[in-house]
Amino acid sequence: MDEFRVRTFDLQKVQNQTHHKTDGLSSSTLVLRRGQAFTVTINYDGRPFDPLKENLIFQIVLGPLCVEVPVSMSRQPSLTQWTAVLERRTPSPTGPRAFSVSLSSPASASIGVYTLQMRVEARSNVKTHLLDQFTLLCNPWCQADSVFLQSEDLRTEYVKSDIGLLFKGSPRNLVSRPWSFDQYEKGILDICMKLLQLSPQYQANMRKDLQNRSNPVYIGRVISAMVNSNDDKGVLSGNWSGDYSDGVNPSKWSGSADILRKWAETQFRPVKYGQCWVFAAVMCTVMRALGIPTRVITNFNSAHGTNGNMVIEEYYNEMGEKLSIGSDSIWNFHVWVESWMKRPDLGRGYDGWQVLDPTPQERSTDEYSSRVSFSAVLQGIAVFLQLLKPPVVGENISFNVIITNKVAVPKLLRKHVNVQNKEYNRDPTGTFWEAHNNMKIGPNETVTIKHEIFFNDYWLKEAEEDYLVNLAVVVEDVESQERVLASEEFNIRSPSLNIEIQNELSVIINKPQVATVTFTNPFNVAVSGELTVSGSGLLEEKAQMSLTIQPRETIKKPVSFTPKMAGAKMLSASLVLEDPPTVLHGFKTINVQAS
Fold first, then answer.
1. What pLDDT band is residue 375 in, cutting at 50, 70 and 90?
2. Residues whose CB falls within 8 Å of the CB of residue 241, separated by 6 or more in sequence, listed in order
3. Rounded distance, CA 20 to CA 39, Å?
4. What is the CATH topology of the domain spanning 5-137?
5. Which residue among 127, 136, 173, 383 is buried most deeply as judged by most CB within 10 Å?
6. Is the pLDDT at 439 greater than 50, yes or no?
7. How many angstroms separate the CA atoms of 79 and 83, rounded?
8. Per-domain residue ranges for the chain?
């Protein structure tokens, strides 16, 4: 009888990826999770495979690291080392024969792109076969993995979900904007693996880096540094200047795939531009793709002191104008990520959500310096500011100045109201509206003065999702020349786009659907801009169209799409207006049913 000869291999990609919950991920290789078995089928010719005459040894290769795993007839899979167990044989007296081997990786295996080889050792010869490559990820479904997450709902939300909302604005006027994390989009997982390969740690010491990739703490630190361009070949370049003419305004990004693909297509040159929420969203994509549970966190009104006195110092002049003096600030918001992992390096009690901040730290005086409001009482005069409703772009801003004389004698007062635009930095950029007047107030009297700022007074030059405004009032007692200040910082929200789906409750995979994007122009002038509609797993290509909308006109634009993946998906739309320069967003979450 002819000798045993290996003919072909089958890595059972569909079966293995379904079993490993990686079936939605797009990669040039088989994608697996550590700490879990996978099956390889070997087809052969000649006489039946005889474990007594042939030794089969799998070689698991990761860069310079190699593990040899002999095939066993009965050994049980292990969570601490690589194992290979002969699973079944299907002899055929007349045709091809096959047998399967169950390979298991340890729950602490390094993540990366492996090469799988098999060596056949017979008495007369030794032959090595190159099977294929596979990508190994962390496994939050495996209890022995340090990223194990107990709840299936949480695993779905923080690993499998490719959609989410990022929160900006202010605590009393939240801006939620859609983001497509895009970890299932074509080529994204391969780009995430390339990101690890381009890290300074890998370039400096490949062997050490690959060994350290068993630890999600190490992985998180590498990814956090690589998302920004402060390291060589980093993904995003930060810009808080307001001038984005040689790149993309951070407010215009709506998903991670465009950023990561652009980075790869330009030979890994930093993509222009990002700010804290963009850095965090891209990092969330990479971490989820690698199998590490991750969520995006927004922190509002973050105090940032520089002189160690535990006091935040801000300065105003007598006219209510905030001055660019000192380096303390209260950031309007800052966005980072949290990833779930064990922390044996810190001791008991520190496992769980770990903060990772990919925004370049040397720009820590950057983001979103905005204040919580405060009022003041001094020498019997109390001053308060009151916004009458959450401001929306296109509408006037209405607010009250409330002054109370808390003593039994009349007073002559000078009132100075100052309103300043703010960009995404610590200080206002200049006064755009002010009001000054003298007034009398009687004993124990409360006076409410209403003010209104017209929309034409707060237009900005560069398109933003929401405007930041610093409002302050200084009231001076003419007799004593004592002054009291009240201030409030707030954001002006942009109008939203509305998305409706035909037959919303019966959206089925591979069945064409139609969405309608609706927007009513709230401005007193015609507006022009570009509408973009996208959706991971819903639209293969973005739908884009140029629009001109008359004052108070309502437009409805249909968009056809065919879902390609089941589960919760998001259709998002953005409208970038030219004048006024504003970015509008809308989204619709869709539950796509399997066919």
1. very low
2. 423
3. 11
4. Immunoglobulin-like (2.60.40)
5. 136
6. yes
7. 9
8. 5-137, 152-308+324-363, 376-493, 498-592
Per-residue pLDDT band for 90 (boundaries 50, 70, 90) equals: low
Whether pTM > 0.85 for this model: the answer is: yes
User: Residue 581 above 50 pLDDT?
Assistant: yes
Coil, strand or helix: which one is 355?
strand
Instruction: Supply angle C-alpha 150, 154, 156, rounded to 5.
Output: 115
Q: Which two tokens stand for residue 441?
A: 């107030």
Q: Which residue has the tokens 């065919």?
A: 562
User: Pick the catalytic residue: 209, 231, 334, 451?
Assistant: 334
Query: Quick one: DSSP state of residue 23?
Result: T
Q: Is position 284 annotated as part of the catalytic site?
A: no
- Are the C-beta atoms of 252 and 574 separated by less than 8 Å? yes
% of the chain surpassing 90 pLDDT: 65
Q: On the CB side of 288, how many CA atoms lie within 13 Å of its CA?
A: 32
DSSP class of residue 29? S
In this structure, whether the domain defined by 498-592 belongs to CATH 2.60.40.10 is answered with: yes
Closest CA to 357 of 331, 342, 335, 340: 335
Residue 313 backbone phi and psi in degrees, to 5? -105, 125
What is the CATH T-level fold of the domain 152-308+324-363, as seen in this structure?
Coagulation Factor XIII; Chain A, domain 2 (3.90.260)
pLDDT, residue 320, reads 87
Percentage of residues of the chain with pLDDT beyond 70:
90
> What is the tens place of the pLDDT at every residue in 352-370?
999 999 998 644 333 322 2
Active site residue 334: yes
Show contacts of 81-88: CB within 8 Å, 24+ apart: 81/106, 82/58, 82/106, 82/109, 84/56, 84/58, 86/51, 87/39
CA distance 325 to 339: 37
Rama region for 379: left / alpha / beta (φ>0; ψ in -120 to 50; rest): left
CA pair distance 572, 503, nearest whole angstrom: 18
Greatest pairwise CA separation for the chain in angstroms: 117
Q: Do 360 and 274 touch, CB atoms closer than 8 A?
A: no
Catalytic residue among 276, 284, 328, 451: 276
Q: What are the tens digits of pLDDT across the range 278-320? A: 999 999 999 999 999 999 999 987 665 555 555 667 788 899 8
Which of 357, 366, 466, 477 is the catalytic position? 357
Say yes or no to pLDDT of 85 above 60. yes
Report which of residues 408 and 173 the model is more confident about: 408
Average pLDDT over residues 312-340: 82
Q: Could you give the CA distance from residue 327 to residue 312 in angstroms, rounded to a whole number?
A: 9
Is residue 199 over pLDDT 80?
yes
Q: Domain 376-493: give its CATH superfamily.
A: Immunoglobulins (2.60.40.10)
357 tagged catalytic: yes
Q: How far is CA 358 from the centre of its chain?
A: 11
Measure Cα distances from 337 to 6, 142, 158, 193 in Å.
Answer: 48, 23, 11, 19
How far apart are the C-alpha atoms of 188 and 135, rounded to whole Å?
13
Q: Would you list the DSSP string of 120-160?
A: EE-SS-EEEEEEEEEEEE--TT-TTSTT--S-HHHHIIIII
